[in-house]
Design goal:
This protein has 208 residues and is of the alpha/beta class. 31% of the residues lie in helices and 29% in strands. The model has no long low-confidence stretch (mean pLDDT 94).
């Protein structure tokens, strides 16, 4: 059982998780021309909050995660809500090559800083997106390491301009980014810090 399996049961009880997803979803809707003909992949979906917010704007969303407990929460929510255009997929894209369907949109939030090989995952994202489709990444701007604590071995946020260079190398274009949310997190009993979150949008060019 990984850390996200342990956190899954209580994830939706944190109001910040909802507020953050609402903010990110609103920016996605403003920056990407979503239609009911589009299919999407929610990579590292967690409990699927963002997908539930966006489900009425898209044809179908596949929610991919490596946490069975997170996916169990999603499946319970799908069953109780009757959201028949959402489906879960247990798959580790970081370690494997996905050979299923491709999508018009791939989106993720607060996932990239857990990924080891950024260049590889960008290439995989590109291969998963249909020509003319979009990638949306929401994550932390560079921070001092206090967000996760000193035991964390992943990335301490990202400079969106540096991230854009990796995306250009992978083949993406029309890259834009903007601040979309601020996380207020209590890091000690007496200290609350503010962590800025960006949303980056990239496009896979249509075949001419």
């Amino acid at each position: 059982m990984n850390e996200f399996d342990i956190k899954a049961g209580g994830w939706d009880q944190n109001p910040m998780h909802w507020d953050r997803s609402v903010a990110i979803a609103e920016h996605i809707k403003k920056l990407i021309p979503l239609t009911k003909e589009m299919t999407a992949l929610d990579f590292g979906a967690g409990t699927g909050i963002t997908s539930f917010i966006l489900k009425d704007y898209l044809k179908e969303i596949t929610l991919m995660d490596t946490s069975l407990e997170m996916l169990k929460v999603i499946n319970n929510k799908i069953e109780s809500s009757g959201a028949d255009n959402l489906k879960t997929l247990y798959f580790d894209l970081e370690k494997e090559v996905y050979k299923g369907i491709t999508f018009d949109l791939v989106f993720n939030q607060m996932v990239l800083h857990h990924i080891n090989d950024l260049e590889d995952i960008m290439s995989k994202f590109y291969s998963l997106i249909n020509p003319g489709g979009f990638l949306a990444i929401a994550d932390l701007y560079p921070e001092d390491g206090s967000f996760h604590g000193k035991e964390f071995t992943g990335y301490k946020g990202f400079d969106p301009e540096e991230l854009s260079k990796l995306l250009l190398k992978a083949g993406f274009s029309n890259i834009i980014h903007r601040k979309c949310y601020v996380i207020d997190k209590k890091v000690t009993d007496n200290v609350t810090k503010h962590y800025n979150v960006f949303l980056l949008i990239a496009n896979r060019n249509a075949i001419k």
